[in-house]
């Protein structure tokens, strides 16, 4: 296999996980229109196999699941996606698995049983998803024009150099000569960060006293062996990272569940589990995934927070204040979706015709007294009214007499959430979920909007599968998990040499432990990232937002410098940018923002190469190859 010809146009994509694969798929879809049959080299740089990347790699515990049902995961666009490029249809995860079962596609090695057992409403294991993502990658490569060659480099990109107007040089670990690139795209996914100040303090405290401290990290990569059987472990964070931790430290250590006649789970410990004392700012786990399919009329979204409203915000002199300018529009959009579904699907629970309510709701000031009075008059049961503040802070004002009362109270909260999220009588919850997706699609154009929105979205829309919460209840009843409550604070007691946790839910009660786990992913931060490439870009002049994200042009993902100028040859997509879309995979027929971004970036790449690169020298097509450089 010959090396790439330096005379050929080339694009380097750093990160070959789902986002990099999505860009590759859009290049394949748009190439016939914008590039034709000219030669082109595409270089994929990632130490992990393409498709799944690090987070969705095959080599992780088979106990870990996806967080979406198989029918709600797709890597392919459809006619709902607002894009300039063509739709290239492809199967959802569920449809792909069905095709494998039917013999239309080969089964990934070692996954035939998992494919056979997967139903459309099931939550696939991450290993199975990795097989789907690998197939999507191979399908995208096969769809490229014959003179486009793909080269894999199983290593890490260290830095990018080169003038704005010239070819870029991408320096790789284990390789002396850089890759020459006309364009560079960063699709880095979730990255590790240098510890924040308190993380450093806790790490130092643990080292001085011989304690265990696990900082924020992707749970599958954490060294959990230091957490000893039977010992109390403080866990700060009650989201999806905690769910993975819970699984790996219980079933992952040999425990098992049985189901009683009433359907309730019982956990049977192996004796190797620690005791997990978990709390957070809210004090409760993320809301369960909704357990019923959509039906009937969907809310017509966007309605109060769409492209026109975003254009008006962007044109506002003096900039945008999120709480003042954006949050009221979000609240009104979510409320509209909720009440549209309530009035159209459950009219017996309302006192007004929908057209009358809709007209008055549209005229009301978001959060204003008139709107509140309208809802009280038209929706008699307070349980049918949308209270976003109560949803965001479910334990506010609730105090428990002691730890035992807190355990019972939290189990009741989780049971009620499971019942509601699996009952179509509460289908306005699903309408709000769809509105959250719509809002996220608009927010990508507004840049960094602070920490509240992403946390609120994740709490309502990105919670665990219902079966995971049923397991949590069983672990609580078995005493393997104990709840700490809301407003959690953790301190280091130098005199006693322990970590101490307190919450506002049980005033005066303290829990001590010699181990502390931060159950959350590192916050994306350009300044504190451990990724050498991203750190070097920032040092060389790439702009970071006040929230620590890499600033990009929302129209095509070009990286902005500190003067706000887009770099003509460098692009970035993903959670480290201020145009990040939701963390979940795209659902079919939802006009997913990641698809729109991928298409815009792919078209910008191909248009740049077509219009500004010197006519390529006619050379024969190269055979795609994999370059296994050594990562250092």
Automatic annotation (TrEMBL):
Pfam families associated with the record: NAD_binding_9 (PF13454)
InterPro entries noted in UniProt: HpyO/CreE_NAD-binding, L-asp_N-monooxygenase_NS-form
Region span, Disordered: 563-583
Highest taxon, organism lineage: Bacteria
Domain FAD-dependent urate hydroxylase HpyO/Asp monooxygenase CreE-like FAD/NAD(P)-binding, residue spans: 12-190
Transmembrane segments: none
Official protein name in the record: FAD/NAD(P)-binding protein
Annotated organism of origin: Streptomyces yunnanensis
């Amino acid at each position: 296999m010959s090396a790439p010809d330096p005379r050929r146009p080339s694009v380097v994509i750093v990160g070959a996980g789902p986002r990099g694969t999505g860009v590759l798929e859009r290049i394949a879809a748009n190439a016939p229109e914008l590039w034709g049959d000219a030669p082109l080299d595409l270089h994929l740089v990632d130490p992990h196999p393409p498709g799944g990347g690090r987070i969705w790699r095959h080599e992780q515990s088979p106990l870990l699941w996806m967080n979406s049902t198989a029918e709600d995961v797709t890597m392919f666009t459809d006619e709902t996606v607002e894009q300039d490029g063509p739709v290239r249809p492809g199967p959802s995860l569920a449809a792909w698995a069905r095709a494998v079962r039917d013999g239309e596609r080969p089964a990934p090695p070692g996954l035939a049983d998992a494919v056979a057992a997967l139903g459309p409403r099931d939550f696939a294991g991450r290993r199975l998803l990795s097989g789907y993502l690998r197939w999507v990658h191979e399908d995208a490569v096969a769809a490229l024009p014959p003179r486009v060659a793909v080269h894999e480099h199983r290593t890490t990109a260290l830095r990018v150099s080169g003038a704005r107007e010239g070819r870029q040089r991408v320096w790789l670990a284990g390789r002396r000569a850089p890759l020459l690139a006309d364009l560079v795209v960063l699709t880095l996914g979730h990255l590790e960060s240098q510890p924040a100040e308190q993380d450093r303090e806790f790490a130092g405290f643990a080292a001085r006293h011989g304690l265990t401290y696990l900082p924020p990290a992707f749970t599958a990569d954490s060294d959990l062996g230091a957490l000893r059987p039977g010992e109390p472990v403080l866990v700060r964070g009650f989201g999806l990272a905690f769910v993975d931790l819970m699984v790996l430290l219980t079933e992952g250590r040999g425990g098992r569940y049985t189901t009683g006649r009433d359907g309730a789970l019982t956990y049977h410990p192996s004796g190797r589990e620690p005791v997990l004392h978990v709390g957070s700012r809210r004090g409760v786990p993320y809301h369960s995934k909704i357990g019923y399919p959509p039906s009937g009329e969907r809310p017509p979204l966007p309605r109060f927070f769409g492209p026109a409203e975003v254009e008006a915000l962007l044109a506002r002199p003096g900039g945008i204040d999120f709480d003042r300018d954006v949050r009221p529009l979000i609240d009104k959009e979510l409320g509209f979706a909720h009440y549209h579904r309530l009035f159209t699907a459950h009219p017996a629970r309302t006192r007004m015709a929908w057209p009358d309510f809709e007209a008055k709701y549209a005229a009301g000031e978001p959060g204003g007294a008139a709107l509140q009075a309208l809802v009280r008059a038209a929706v008699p049961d307070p349980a049918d009214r949308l209270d976003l503040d109560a949803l965001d802070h479910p334990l506010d004002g609730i105090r428990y007499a002691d730890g035992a009362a807190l355990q019972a109270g939290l189990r009741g909260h989780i049971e009620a959430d499971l019942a509601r999220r699996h009952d179509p009588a509460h289908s306005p919850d699903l309408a709000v979920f769809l509105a959250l997706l719509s809002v996220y699609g608009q927010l990508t154009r507004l840049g960094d909007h602070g920490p509240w929105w992403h946390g609120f979205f994740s709490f309502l829309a990105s919670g665990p599968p219902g079966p995971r919460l049923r397991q949590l209840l069983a672990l609580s009843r078995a005493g393997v998990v104990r709840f700490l409550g809301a407003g959690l604070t953790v301190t280091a007691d130098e005199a006693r040499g322990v970590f101490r946790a307190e919450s506002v839910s049980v005033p005066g009660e303290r829990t001590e432990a010699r181990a502390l786990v931060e159950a959350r992913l590192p916050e994306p931060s350009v300044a504190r990232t451990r990724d050498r490439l991203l750190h070097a870009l920032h040092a060389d002049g790439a702009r970071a937002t006040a929230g620590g994200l890499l600033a990009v042009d929302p129209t095509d993902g070009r990286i902005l410098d500190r003067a706000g100028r887009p770099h003509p040859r460098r692009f970035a997509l993903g959670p480290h940018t201020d145009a990040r879309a939701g963390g979940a995979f795209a659902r079919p027929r939802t006009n997913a923002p990641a698809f729109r971004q991928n298409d815009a970036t792919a078209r910008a790449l191909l248009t740049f190469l077509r219009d500004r690169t010197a006519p390529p020298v006619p050379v024969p097509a190269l055979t795609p190859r994999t370059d296994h450089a050594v990562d250092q």
